[in-house]
Amino acid sequence: MTPGEETALDAARLEDLARGALVLAAGAEHSSHRASLDWARAALAEHGPVPLIHPGDLGSGRMCVTVSMLGSSAALAEQLPTGEEPRRAVRALERRLGRAADAVVPLNTAAENALLAVVTAASCGLPLVDGDGCGRVLPLLEQTTFTIAGVDVAPVALATPAGDVVVVDAAGSRVEELVRPLVLAAGGWAVAACYAMDGERLAAAVVPGTVSRALAAGRPTQGDPFTLWQPRPRRLGIGRITAVEHPATPGPDTTGGTALPSRPTSVVVSETEGLHRRFRLEAHNEALLVLADGAPAAAAPDQILMLSAADQRVLDVERALPGIEVEIVVIPAAPAWHTPQGRRLAAAGGLLLLSPDHEPDARQMKRPDAERPEETRW
Amino acid sequence: MVRRPDLSAPMTVAELVQYGPLPGVRILGTTGRGTQVLDVRIVDRREALDHLRPHTAVVLTEALARSGWTVEIALRKAWEQAAACVVVPDTAAAVHPPGALADRLGVPLLLIGGDALEGAVRIASAVSRPDAGRTALLADAAQRLAAAGPHVERVLTALHAALPSTSLALTDPVGGMLAGRRAALDSAHPVRLDVPGPDGHPLAVLVADSRSGEAGWASTVEAVLRMAVPPLTAWAATRRLAEEHLARRSEMLLHQLTHPPEGEDEQTRTRIRAEAAALGWPLAGPLIAFALRPAVAADAGAAPLPGPALRALWTRYGIGGPLIAYEDCWVSWRSAAVGSPVPDPEVWLRQGEAQLRTAVRAIGDHLPLAGGVAGPAGDTGTLGVALADARAAAAVAAVPGSVVRADRMGPAQLLSALPAEALRRPAEVVLAPLLAADRDGTLLRTLAVVLDQGAAPSAAAELLGVHRNTVAARLERIRSLGFDPEDPAQRLALHLACRVLLTEP
Question: Which of A299, B170, B268, B397 is the Cys-Cys partner for B370 at CB 3.0 to 4.6 Å?
Answer without folding.
Answer: B397
